[in-house]
Amino acid sequence: MIRDNQSFTNFLSNVHRFVHDKAIPSEAEIENADEVPFALVDELRNGGFFGWSIPEEYGGAGLTTEELVLGALELSQAAVAVRARVGTNTGIGSEGIVVDGTVEQKLRYLPRLASGEWTSCLAVTEPDAGSEASNVKTTAQRDGDSYILNGEKCYITNASIADLFTVTARTDPDSKGAKGVSSFLVERGMTGLSVGKPYRKMGQAGSPVSGVYLNDCRVPATNLIGGVEGKGFSTVMKALNKQRIHLAALSTGPAIRMLNMAIEHAKSRVQFGRPIADYQLVQAMIADCQTEIFAARSMIIETARKRDCGEDVVLEASMCKYFATEMCGRVADRCVQIFGGAGFIADHSSIERWYRDIRLFRLYEGTSQIHQLNIAKQVIAAAG
Fold first, then answer.
1. Do 166 and 215 fall into the same domain?
2. Annotated catalytic sites, by residue?
3. Could you tell me if 43 and 85 are in contact, meaning their C-beta atoms sit under 8 angstroms apart?
4. The domain containing residue 44 runs over which residues?
5. pLDDT in tens, 113-126
6. Is the pTM of this model over 0.90?
7. Backbone φ, ψ for residue 197 (5° rounding)
8. How far apart are CA 108 and CA 102, in angstroms?
């Protein structure tokens, strides 16, 4: 659903201009410093990037799902760290508040997230609760007008720079699985909250990921999302169902960027007296990449439009995430192959960085194998 074609065309043009004039020229600096420069973050704040999916009444852009994914296709053609810097605010770090937060919670937090004043993160994964996200061990015990949280979260994107943490914890100690899990809004500085040093990673330099530790962390009862216990897993799944469409788009933008890089290389690289773009086996790899990008983009936009129409897209969102992230991995591999030896050498091309950066797409927000299982279960159930 595009609300105003002319305004949205201008919006996409501004995003495209930012990516090519500001973000892409900063990629080497981001890689070397392992952080997004403050000046670039300030550009993101001033450009409203942090509030894309936050409703307009709270200072955001209120983008529809279709508008969000089209913007993501543009933004994600810059280094992964750039979109990750705003990604938790436009996705999993704010969506729980948007869909299930109380009026007071929305008024307190969403304007700060929309402006980029605060950075958010979602703290669900634990040492024993990854793909099985309902296996939460973190506990939350009611103590007067507060809850006391104890537990450990791991692999949390933006944790080291976050001001607000959406944390899942078990409020019913006798419950199992999703039942009895609640979600809390924990502010940096609350007693008992600490964050580990950012992990060393295979890729995605500039996007910090670390552990979160809750040791008798006292959280006001008013920070229980929605004010109701036992609804936390449902809140997280609502956020993830939208975010999986978003992530599919964020995985397709990099594929577009890598293919463009490979085509430029193929046109300029001469072997046996001809550009390698003239050779049919190189052309076959380019054709396969373009076809799969088109397929992913088509799936994503169709699913986004269905969601905007109020349809249930749980199955489609899972298929989009699964196909687009796997597609991106295949495109990365072909593009390195087109670059040949230069594709393996960081001094010669940034394609090797992209190859490393996009590997995570197939792991977070549900591994490819978890999505395969979920897709199959839904299809079989629908068939009776």
1. yes
2. 365
3. no
4. 5-115
5. 999 999 999 999 99
6. yes
7. -65, 140
8. 10
